Amino acid sequence: MAIKKKSPEAEKYQGPTDGESRCGWCLGDPIYLKYHDEEWGTPVHDDKLLFEFLVLESFQAGLSWLTILKKRENFRKAFSNFDVKKVAKYDEKKYEALMQDTGIIRNQLKIRAAINNAQRFIEIQKEFGSFDKYVWGFVGGKPLRNSLKALRDIQPKTKISDAMSADMGKRGFKFRGSTICYAFMQAVGMVDDHLDNCWRKKK
């Protein structure tokens, strides 16, 4: 499939040049290609990056992931480079400023959820030592590798994401439905959903 759109921050990205196969969902934009090749499904254990994906996945609800990726740098600037301690202290003035920021998704519920979730994130860190230890506990600390022949085989949620969603809900997290949790799990490598013929899965 041809790459149709040249996105400024990724237009120079080439990726593998040896004709290797990729998951079909990433073929429409260089940003998608770069994200697929370098991040999606790669295990993340850094709390700062885990918080970033938690925020981005919550904003993605109802939208395409590509929309979020194109605004990722704007989100980083708007949310203090995803410094969870700073985001947790955002007041009403900061909330109003975010609602006026055209570079991000200006949804009042999602913005308030990001601030709330930062506070809950810190509570998790205090209880478990790190958010990493908490969230990876749902998969026993090791990535789950699914055997998938086609995109239609990828599930939108699982019993594990159901459990994760339920537990996070009890802890006060917002925008943490099972589908969002599973997308988060895919993003941070808790589950590897690259197709079997994808070069990333083979690697």
SSE layout and pairing:
Blueprint: H1 30-38, H2 47-60, H3 65-70, H4 72-78, H5 84-88, H6 92-99, H7 108-128, H8 131-136, E1 144-145, H9 159-170, H10 178-187, E2 191-192, H11 199-202
Parallel strand pairs: 1-2
Helix pairs in contact: 2-7, 2-10, 9-10
Task: Give an account of the 3D structure.
The protein has helices at 30-38, 47-60, 65-70, 72-78, 84-88, 92-99, 108-128, 131-136, 159-170, 178-187, 199-202; strands at 144-145, 191-192. With 203 residues, it is mostly helical. The protein has a single domain (47-192), classed as Endonuclease III, domain 1 (Orthogonal Bundle). A two-stranded parallel ribbon has the order 1-2. The longest helix is centred in the middle third of the chain and has 21 residues, at 108-128.
What's a quick, concise take on this entry?
Helix content is 50%, strand content 2%.
Structural class comes to mainly alpha
N- to C-terminal distance: 22 Å
Total number of strands: 2
CATH class: Mainly Alpha
Spatial order of the strands in the main sheet?
1-2
Rough outline: globular
What CATH architecture label applies? Orthogonal Bundle
- Provide the CATH superfamily: Hypothetical protein, domain 2
Mean pLDDT: 92
